[in-house]
Specification:
The structure is a homodimer of 363-residue chains. With 363 residues, chain A is α/β, with parallel strands linked by helices. The first copy, chain A, is 29% helix and 28% strand. In chain A, the strands form 4 sheets. Chain A has a 5-stranded mixed barrel, surrounded by 4 helices. Chain A has a 4-stranded mixed sheet with strand order 13-15-17-18, covered by helices on one side. In chain A, strand 2, helix 2 and strand 3 form a beta-alpha-beta unit. In chain A, helix 3 packs across helix 6. The N and C termini of chain A lie far apart (55 Å). The interface between A and B is medium-sized, with 31 and 31 residues. Strand 16 of chain A pairs parallel with strand 18 of chain B.
């Protein structure tokens, strides 16, 4: 029996433009200005619970050198390169099949590479509890974050009955990102938690679930299976992986398992949630980064900047790259972000339009 | 009899930070984004009226290579290097003494290096008329700019009686930068014009005037005189020039000559003004640059920028250097200026504090 950490690190991070760009997305950046990238912080967060050879990174070929540089202890054969983006279900299928071939009894924690956690001790306690809960079963355990506001940017997990003698509950349903009115309802109802995208299950459960719900995808990984750990793994993956449906693990598996009575590998399956409160953010937006960053007396969050002078400004988030010097005066509620010759200044409440803003340069 | 153009190009341009900096002040920059620096535009403006060997540049040693690069036709011996800044009277003393040694009958146009003129044909007509007016006399002729607003950033020239048969008037007095109330009074009174700092006189008049009003300074240039056009000119200048008083030509000469009956070189002297209206700005501030720059439909002036996208912004002046890309959203009435890794964003109406802003980086 072995525990494995799977980190999904293939995103392009377009909502953090210009700091995060396809050639250097946020998981590879010291977004918080603490001297470690989000990917490094993600691995750090799990402490010593996982040996380096039990840590797996799924990313795209373009980022291989970044992963090797930032995580030198992770063996290169543990870095899986997707030839194209097919959302999270094929990503998890690939890594689950590959791990299971070598470690048939593996239990997996699957985690995004770009989240932020305040209380790491509590985080590790939850992970440890979760691994124990799923190991050797066909269960899936998700972490549910206690909402601190009626956020419309997260999906929600609706919980049902408690599992006897534990802090874990059955999942009744997954709810997509709500409108504000619905978010307020969820926020007031203790049975709703944010879906952090962190979950645990045995590799065998992952494989069985995809075989059940996405048989065509499972057939693709069955074909690839022979090549794992061989010299031609990458070329076989490059040929066959693109045939996978573009579908998230939530749609492909979680929502189909939740609230149902389904048997996988001859054991009763089910999706469960461990409500947790360790201070979490997906750092998905400048706004969420602003929330997580220390602020000066005028509520300006200034990140990674030695040469920034902020005068008569408030409620701004400022991110300066390299040696750039900035003097900012008279700004209220702005994002000011520079990255190697590209500058964004925009109202903080307009950040959902950042894709439009970055595209406006190409006209 | 020969006409000479003297361009004072020693300023450090601190009010245009960060575009203009001591190591690269505004006269050496393509401030208007037209492909020519202000110094080059200044020379261009005089057309073919002055042969290259009759063009003289007074600047500091630090800028020699910039002047040579930007004005390759001007002979290197015509580039005078002040070892330190002593304001305009010593600057003009130096060049007047030196020119007069070689060209005893020289008539000089003295011009700053960093101004802007719209109607160059009218400008040249005024210069030509002015040169004819002073040549062979002891007169000084200044150009008075017709005020287009009650500006508090310029000095004013108060004119008196008209010179028979000409557009030229006697100068009654020079008035320093007024407060707003006084500026309004001046603006309503046709006898007041802006002092553009452009004036004409014979080199002999310049020498006689300094001899009269600043005898110690004149004595210094008399001492330097032997070394002009010799190999040790610069070392003598470096030794003696710093002994000059720090004083402007306005204080040293103009104000003392205006409205008085004084004889220089045995001829009646006097300061005169030619009121002119050729569209002039000293480009002394971001605000004056804003006025002179074409604007988009939202009144944004965007200078020298191929990669700037301005969204829902108005009344801004934007200056981007090199290959920087900028997206600006939701800014009203701001200066956004980048120069090789230094960025300023500030309210346009706070630009008089730019020195404070730039100094705030050094804290």
């Amino acid at each position: 029996m072995s525990n494995h950490l799977v980190i999904m690190a293939g995103g392009v991070g377009s909502r953090f433009w210009p700091m995060s760009r396809p050639e250097n997305p946020k998981q590879f950046i010291d977004v918080l200005g603490v001297g470690r990238t989000l990917l490094q912080l993600t691995v750090d967060r799990f402490g010593s619970a996982f040996a380096p050879e039990h840590i797996w990174i799924v990313t795209s070929a373009a980022y291989l050198s970044k992963v090797r540089e930032q995580l030198p202890n992770v063996p290169v054969e543990n870095i899986l390169l997707e030839p194209c983006m097919r959302n999270t279900a094929p990503c998890i299928g690939y890594v689950a099949w590959k791990i299971r071939k070598k470690y048939p009894d593996a239990t997996l924690v699957v985690s995004p590479a770009d989240h932020f956690v305040v209380d790491q001790q509590e985080f590790r306690r939850c992970i440890s509890m979760g691994l124990d809960f799923v190991k050797g079963t066909s269960r899936v355990l998700t972490l549910g974050m206690k909402p601190s506001r009626p956020d419309t940017g997260y999906g929600y997990i609706q919980s049902g009955l408690q599992v006897d003698g534990s802090d874990i509950l059955q999942v009744k349903a997954f709810r997509e990102k709500p409108n504000y009115e619905t978010a307020v309802t969820y926020y007031k109802d203790a049975s709703y938690n944010w879906n952090a995208g962190i979950f645990m299950w045995d590799a065998a459960t992952a494989e069985a679930a995809l075989r059940q719900f996405e048989p065509e995808m499972a057939a693709i990984f069955d074909k690839i299976n022979d090549s794992f750990y061989s010299a031609n793994e990458q070329s076989v993956v490059n040929e066959l992986f693109p045939n996978c449906n573009k579908i998230s693990i939530d749609y492909a598996v979680m929502e189909r398992l939740a609230g149902k009575s389904i048997t996988l590998n001859g054991k009763e399956s089910g999706v469960f949630v461990l409500p947790a409160d360790f201070g979490w953010s997906d750092l998905g937006t400048w706004g969420s980064l602003y929330v997580q960053t220390p602020k000066d007396s005028a509520q300006n969050a200034i990140i990674g900047a030695n040469n920034v002078s902020v005068i008569e400004s408030s409620d701004c988030i400022v991110r300066a790259s390299g040696d750039i010097k900035m003097v900012l005066q008279g700004l209220e509620g702005y994002i000011v972000a520079d990255d190697n010759g590209t500058l964004l200044v925009c109202k903080k409440d307009q950040e959902q339009r950042i894709k439009e803003f970055s595209a406006s340069l190409d006209k």
